[in-house]
Amino acid sequence: MGWFSAKFAVLLGVGLCGLTLGAAQSHDYAAVLGLSYRFYEAQMSGAVPSWSRASQAQGGWRNRSHMQDGRGPGGIGVDLSGGWYDAGGGCAATGALAWALGSAACTEAASIWSATATTGSYYDKAYVVAWAAVFGPAALLLRDAGAGSATVAAAADNYVSQLMATWIVSRTCTSSSPEWTVCNTAGGLAWHTDWGSNRYAANIAMAALASARDGSGVGAGLSATVKRQRRCWARGQVAYVLGSNPKKQSFVVGYKPTSSHASPTRPHHKGASCNPDYSVTCNWSAL
Q: Which residues in the chain show pLDDT less than 50?
C-alpha cells in the first residue's frame, strides 16, 4: 500500500469503527485508486496514446475519436481534439474535466502523470488566457468577499455541519421514502436518489473525511467524538461501494475484495458499450 492509500486508510478510520454487514472487511485501497487512474485512460478523446491501457494498441477497445473538433464543419479553425470525456458519455464538460485534471495532477503516483500531461495539453489549445490580467481582479474579488476571514470560516463550518447532519442520519428507507431526501438502505448505504446514488454517498464521504482531519481548517473545532463519527460513517459508505454489503456486490469496475464478490460487467459507458462496427447505431439499448 502506497503513502497516499495508507493515509487514505487512516482518514477512513481503519481499526477504529465498529462496523457491521462486513464493512470492517479489509479493502485494497491502493488497487482501487489504481483503477480510478485507469478510468482516466479510458476517458481519453482525440488521438489515444499507445501507452493507454484502454487503447487498441494495448489490446483494449479505445480508438481515436473526435479528431476534427474545432476544425470540422462549423468549426473555428483550431485543433481542439483531446481531453477527457465526461462520465460515460461522449461529451467533454470542461468544468468537471478541469477539476478532475487538477486533482489527479496532485497525486504522487507516476502512473497518472502521463495521462494528466496528455489531457493538460488540451487546455493549452482550448484556452488562451493572459494570466496577469486575471489574477488581479480575482484577488480583489476574494478580498471584497472576505475570503479567509473568521466570518467566512465560521460560515463554512456551519454549512459543512448542516451537510453532515443531512447525510449522517438514522432513518431507514421505506417504499414511501421521497426521492432527494437521505435515508439508509438495509445494507447501510446513504440513499439519495435512484439515479447514481453511490456517487452522492461517495462524494459526501469525502467531504466528511476532509472535515474530520486533525489540525486547522474546516472542522478544527470539532470534538474527537464527532470526528470519529464522520470518519466511521465515511468508511462505511466507501466499504459499501467496494463490496461490503449484503449482496457482496462491488460497484467499482475491476475490483472484487474476494473471489466470492461480484463487480460490474456492463458499466454505463458509451465508448465501451457500442459495437465496434460503426454502421451499427449506438443508443440507450447498448448501454
A: 1-7, 10, 15, 20-23
Q: What is the pLDDT of residue 124?
A: 81
Rounded to a whole number, what is the distance in angstroms from the first to the last CA of the chain? 34
CB count, 10 Å around CB of 212? 24
d(CA 220, CA 161): 12
Residue 226's identity, in one-letter code, is: V
**Structural domain boundaries in the chain:** 20-128+268-286, 132-242
| Residue appearing with cell numbers 489527479 | 104
Q: What is the pLDDT of residue 21?
A: 45
Task: Find out whether 228 and 16 touch, Cβ atoms under 8 Å.
Answer: yes
pLDDT of residue 110: 63
What's the CA gap between 250 and 241, in Å, rounded? 6
Contact present, 231 and 209 (Cβ < 8 Å): yes
Residue of 219, 231, 200 whose CA lies nearest to 160: 219
The predicted structure's pLDDT at residue 226: 94
pTM: 0.80
Q: Residue 247: its pLDDT value, please?
A: 95
CA angle 112, 253, 230 (to 5 degrees): 80
State yes or no: is 268 an active-site residue: yes
What is residue 4's predicted lDDT score, i.e. its pLDDT?
Answer: 41
Task: Check 192, 261, 268, 269 and give the catalytic one.
Answer: 268
> What is the rounded distance in angstroms from the CA atom of residue 95 to the CA atom of residue 102?
11
Helices (H), 168-223: 197-211
On whether the CB atoms of residues 271 and 48 are closer than 8 A, the answer is no
Q: Write down the pLDDT at residue 2.
A: 41
Q: Which residues contact 198 (CB under 8 A, 6 or more apart)?
A: 189, 241, 251
